[in-house]
Design a protein that fits this description.
By secondary structure, the protein is α/β, with parallel strands linked by helices. It is 44% helix and 24% strand. It has 9 helices and 9 strands. Helix 4 packs across helix 7 and helix 7 runs parallel beside helix 8. The longest helix is centred in the first third of the chain and has 16 residues. It is elongated, with a radius of gyration of 19 Å. The N and C termini lie far apart (57 Å).
């Protein structure tokens, strides 16, 4: 089975899910292209390898090269949910110690969330954490730009399931949710319960179409009111 790679972003971590075979030559090209297309946005990658049925020496070498390239650029590549075959491969080649390998995708993502706080506690440790959730990349970019100007530590997610993972690892003070997040009451309730102490701000349906300046002022007024509530 040829390699199929699909990626999505959770906060500032790109998760790449691989299905098929990772082998030398052109057959491993989809993985390289999937990583390259996200490099402008992040250098933090998680490879989900639970559905990889086979990997050869060249394919494993490709993973090692990708790891070296990302770490040289002050990024990283973590692996998660290895298939039984891959577990055997990493044990047999003694490469298990080179990569950071996690049992679940959530654990791999959390590893990225924890390390920056330890290394840069003075720069971001005192800033309030906010998570923004919406299916629109444009709206997420807008919300992030506004909130960062007011010295918030901002995380973004396009899906409630991904946002729930981020909440459990970062414990933000506030979540700013787009209108689409209300479409599934069950998913939204699970997201809300991920951290009962988190304040939640749900944006009105016409927020994205509102004038940018007024929308920003309204956003920060509502954020301030929520965070100042005892």
């Amino acid at each position: 089975m040829k390699l199929i790679c699909k990626s999505h972003q959770i906060g500032d971590v790109a998760v790449v899910r691989c299905v098929g075979r990772i082998v030398a030559g052109e057959e491993s090209l989809p993985l390289r292209l999937e990583i390259e297309k996200s490099l402008l946005e992040t250098k933090k990658f998680v490879l989900h390898l639970g559905s990889v049925a086979y990997i050869d020496s060249g394919g494993l070498g490709a993973l090692v090269r990708s790891l070296g390239t990302l770490r040289a650029a002050r990024g990283d590549l973590k692996l998660c949910e290895l298939s039984p075959l891959l577990k055997q491969v990493f044990e047999a080649t003694h490469l298990k110690g080179i990569f950071e390998i996690y049992g679940t995708e959530r654990q791999a993502i959390e590893a990225f969330c924890h390390r920056p706080r330890a290394l840069a506690q003075n720069s971001s440790g005192s800033r309030p954490k906010v998570i923004c959730v919406d299916s629109s990349s444009d709206l997420l970019a807008y919300l992030g730009a506004i909130l960062r100007r007011f010295n918030f530590d901002v995380y973004t997610a396009k899906y409630l399931s991904d946002a729930t993972t981020l909440v459990k690892s970062t414990h933000p003070r506030l979540a700013v949710c787009g209108p689409a997040t209300q479409e599934s009451a069950t998913a939204f309730e699970k997201f809300r319960q991920a951290d009962p102490c988190m304040q939640i701000l749900v944006l009105p349906p016409d927020f994205q179409a509102s004038e940018a300046g007024k929308g920003g002022s309204s956003l920060m007024d509502r954020v301030g009111a929520l965070l100042n509530t005892p």
